[in-house]
Write a sequence for this structure.
């Protein structure tokens, strides 16, 4: 089942033709209407007229988060502000949030893109969709709200509320699909169990989780705790919010809306394209955005791309699950560590919860890493030893481990903040 | 049906089309809108083999056809209804239509040409009424019908119409566009170039906006009608839905 089969199941040659047409139109528009791009292209010696094929894209300069900040709030808009009908902002996980504009057409395609993600994740018009993202400048809540409405599902815009209230609504309103971050879903699952609500007694069937990286083991745990089919979805506000990519029920990668976005994967250091299947930084060019077209935006998210056909019938390329952000990448004692790898280990060890924080410090010029983990028996030295050994082997560097009582670490209501870095200053 | 990639056309040192890419799917009506001099006619003439391209690629029913002569394009199933009709004024209506069918006569399909003539008369009963009249004495709307009928006589898979509404009264325009819809419903793919953007977007499913020889927008007709820039530049008003 797909929402727009005529797009999602298009022939590869048709997709590439459409991408070329839309890319050229986008380049023509930004070169004409956005001084920033005109200047950038000039500096790079790039003339949009010299563009010949999709692979010429690599000759174009990148756009970074800093460029968006430098031109904040409206400097990169390609239409006059009076054509803009909505403004959101990036979530600001890493620094200053930047404005994102939408024309009426942008909102319209956004709704369809998120409806695609919902349908791919199992949701249909008869579902009751509870949106537990915070409604506001952040794109997640409004994106899923519109997508679910477009689909004809019943939307419950709970926004942020206490875990107990979320669970209460879930029970009373017979919610069948939950939309939030995976870490928040875990909090809700625990709250339900605490309140004595057996997961089987809820009507929940689907979980659509995104906005932060999560692991397969976390998926398994969420599926077991909430008795749902959980799918991952990906998007970022800078290119419009959720709807960029979403998993189908095969759950082997997230289908990219290639008719609206051109996704490349580059080596984050050399910035050269890497072959399909190799992980690198995702770089996104919007193909249909009118208000804020973005050319080669460096997402700083790490994933790989595959064009191997999927069993679900969609012909759209898939990205692997996002492994983390290039900024999340922690260099600990010279080793590259992603917080998501720590989470994966914790989920495999009985007696620990995937609630943790990493405290980085520098003593006598040397990095020290401490992982604080919630455990049902914080005094269990043997357990601490197991966790430390497993982490050391997974990360490639020894880390100190401290077990703390359940619920003693701050809970997430949005994106989880897991890293405390005291090494600077 | 038709796939164009990076088409470049220049008149001497002056670039008329710059890496234009577009496609038309089997059975659909696609439209090309743009101001005077944006390159719309140049594009159709190039696709019909009347104007040479400087670079690019054109696939017609999957085969590369760039550089083919006009009569070869017609024989392959790609017909142009030129701007300003260009009927043979000194010949009767019937002769004008038979000229359109000459590609098929050459292929030994004379009997079918007679059937085609009947088909065209069913589509445009007015042409049958004026069968023996000289084309030059027809009204503008009738000449346009004749130009379309002449193109259809070659049984094209794709018919390209250049400004069919030009100079016609609003009621006649409506008539012509209704015919275009009927042609597409009959299975013939249509690429429609129009200055009257609103009418064109009403009959077409998809469209492209051409500006200074470049495509600046592609989208469904609904999307283009909702685009404020298109509204300001080509629809003459901003529509608030």
């Amino acid at each position: 089942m797909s929402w727009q089969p005529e797009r999602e199941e298009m022939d590869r040659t048709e997709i590439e033709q459409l991408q070329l047409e839309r890319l050229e139109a986008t380049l023509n528009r930004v070169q004409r209407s956005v001084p920033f791009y005109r200047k950038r292209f000039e500096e790079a010696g790039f003339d949009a007229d010299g563009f010949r094929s999709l692979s010429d894209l690599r000759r174009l300069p990148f756009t970074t988060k800093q460029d968006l900040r430098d031109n904040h709030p409206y400097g990169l808009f390609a239409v006059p502000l009076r054509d803009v009908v909505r403004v959101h902002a990036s979530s600001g996980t890493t620094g200053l949030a930047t404005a994102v504009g939408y024309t009426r057409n942008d909102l319209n395609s956004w709704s369809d893109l998120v409806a695609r993600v919902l349908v791919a994740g199992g949701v249909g018009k008869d579902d009751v969709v509870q949106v537990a993202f915070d409604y506001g400048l952040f794109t997640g809540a409004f994106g899923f709200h519109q997508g679910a409405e477009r689909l004809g599902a019943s939307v419950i815009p709970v926004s942020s509320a206490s875990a107990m209230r979320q669970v209460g609504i879930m029970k009373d309103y017979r919610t069948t699909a939950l939309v939030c971050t995976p870490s928040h879903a875990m909090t809700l699952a625990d709250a339900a169990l605490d309140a004595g609500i057996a997961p089987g007694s809820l009507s929940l069937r689907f979980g659509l989780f995104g906005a932060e990286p999560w692991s397969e083991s976390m998926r398994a745990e969420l599926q077991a705790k909430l008795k749902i089919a959980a799918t991952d979805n990906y998007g970022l506000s800078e290119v419009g919010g959720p709807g960029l990519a979403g998993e189908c029920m095969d759950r082997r990668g997230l289908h990219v809306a290639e008719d609206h976005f051109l996704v490349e994967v580059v080596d984050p250091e050399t910035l050269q394209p890497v072959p399909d299947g190799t992980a690198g930084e995702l770089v996104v060019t919007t193909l249909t955005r009118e208000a804020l077209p973005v050319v080669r935006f460096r997402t700083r998210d790490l994933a790989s791309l595959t064009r191997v056909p999927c069993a679900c019938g969609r012909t759209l390329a898939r990205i692997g699950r996002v492994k983390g952000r290039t900024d999340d990448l922690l260099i600990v004692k010279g080793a590259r560590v992603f917080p998501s790898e720590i989470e994966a280990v914790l989920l495999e060890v009985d007696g620990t919860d995937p609630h943790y924080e990493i405290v980085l410090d520098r003593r006598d010029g040397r990095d020290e890493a401490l992982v604080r983990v919630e455990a049902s028996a914080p005094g269990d030295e043997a357990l601490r030893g197991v966790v430390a050994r497993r982490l050391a082997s997974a990360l490639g560097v020894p880390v100190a481990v401290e077990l703390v009582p359940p619920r003693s670490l701050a809970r997430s209501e949005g994106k989880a903040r897991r890293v405390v870095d005291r090494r600077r200053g | 049906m038709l796939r164009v990639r990076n088409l470049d056309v220049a008149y001497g040192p002056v670039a008329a089309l710059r890496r234009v890419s577009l496609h038309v799917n089997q059975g659909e009506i696609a439209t090309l809108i743009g101001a005077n001099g944006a390159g719309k006619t140049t594009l159709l003439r190039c696709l019909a083999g009347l104007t040479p391209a400087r670079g690019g690629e054109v696939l017609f029913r999957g085969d590369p056809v760039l550089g083919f002569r006009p009569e070869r394009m017609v024989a392959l199933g790609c017909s142009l209804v030129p701007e300003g009709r260009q009927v043979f004024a000194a010949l009767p209506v019937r002769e004008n239509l038979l000229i359109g069918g000459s590609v098929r006569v050459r292929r030994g399909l004379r009997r079918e040409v007679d059937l085609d003539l009947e088909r065209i008369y069913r589509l445009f009963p007015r042409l049958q009424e004026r069968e023996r009249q000289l084309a030059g004495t027809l009204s503008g709307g009738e000449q346009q019908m004749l130009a379309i009928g002449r193109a259809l006589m070659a049984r094209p898979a794709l018919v390209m119409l250049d400004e069919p509404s030009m100079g016609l009264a609003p009621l006649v325009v409506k008539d012509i566009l209704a015919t275009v819809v009927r042609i597409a419903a009959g299975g013939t793919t249509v690429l429609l170039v129009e200055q009257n953007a609103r009418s064109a977007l009403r009959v077409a499913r998809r469209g492209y906006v051409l500006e200074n020889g470049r495509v600046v927008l592609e989208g469904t007709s609904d999307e283009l009608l909702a685009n404020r820039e298109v509204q300001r530049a080509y629809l003459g008003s901003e529509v608030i839905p």
